[in-house]
Specification:
about 210 residues; alpha/beta; 6-stranded mixed β-sheet; 4-stranded mixed β-sheet; 10 strands; about 30% strand; globular
Length: about 210
């Protein structure tokens, strides 16, 4: 695979690092979308993602975060790299899905008990590899606040659409993105792909 353009941090360069496919997908948030990005390979070659990590760290530096926290999996990998670049502490959350998830934003994110007490009173930057509806970052935001932390910014390597970013803007939390792109999300009852009878794939379901 050819290396991306040197130090390029735009949308095209990011999409060279991941695999995307078109279809009809139920996302973790419960929304439906027509594009799915397989982010598993993103951190396999650190040198390839390094320009994006550096750009996000630079964007978050003015917020003077004490801790950088990200949701497992990819968000936590990113949080550790950004924390190192900023000289900050690192933390992460883990997803908890209800037995029968329904509606929107059913996923919850929890801090490991050993980490929860370390966040009280600290300024926290929340990061994820990609944000669309923002389910993982919303869950992480709720969790760190419940332990007395102060979220000061939310960041992502790529922000798709405005649903997640609008949520954080409404909460008074700044959103920093290395790259952005348009992205259509639909509530299940409004999904045109459902109306067309396109088979639905639940990409957020836990592996069997």
């Amino acid at each position: 695979m050819p290396a991306p353009r040197a130090a390029a941090t735009d949308k095209a360069a990011f999409l060279e690092l991941v695999a995307g496919r078109q279809g009809h997908f139920r996302l973790e948030s419960g929304h439906h979308g027509g594009l799915w990005l397989d982010l598993d390979p993103l951190f396999c070659e650190p040198r390839r993602v390094a320009p994006f990590v550096a750009a996000l760290a630079a964007a978050l530096r003015p917020y003077e975060a004490d801790v950088v926290c990200g949701p497992l999996l990819g968000g936590a990998f990113l949080a550790q790299l950004v924390a190192q670049a900023l000289g900050a502490e690192f933390s992460y959350t883990e997803r908890v899905m209800p037995p029968r998830p329904g509606g929107l934003y059913a996923a919850r994110y929890r801090l490991p008990p050993a980490l929860a007490g370390r966040l009280r009173g600290k300024r926290v930057a929340l990061v994820d590899d990609v944000m669309s509806a923002g389910s993982a970052l919303r869950g992480t935001w709720e969790e760190v606040r419940s332990h007395g932390a102060v979220p000061v910014a939310a960041g992502a390597l790529l922000v798709l659409g405005s649903t997640g970013a609008d949520f954080f803007a409404g909460c008074g939390v700044a959103v920093e993105a290395v790259a952005r792109d348009a992205y259509a999300l639909w509530r299940p009852g409004d999904c045109p792909l459902c109306a067309q009878g396109v088979p639905l794939e639940d990409v957020a379901a836990p592996a069997a």
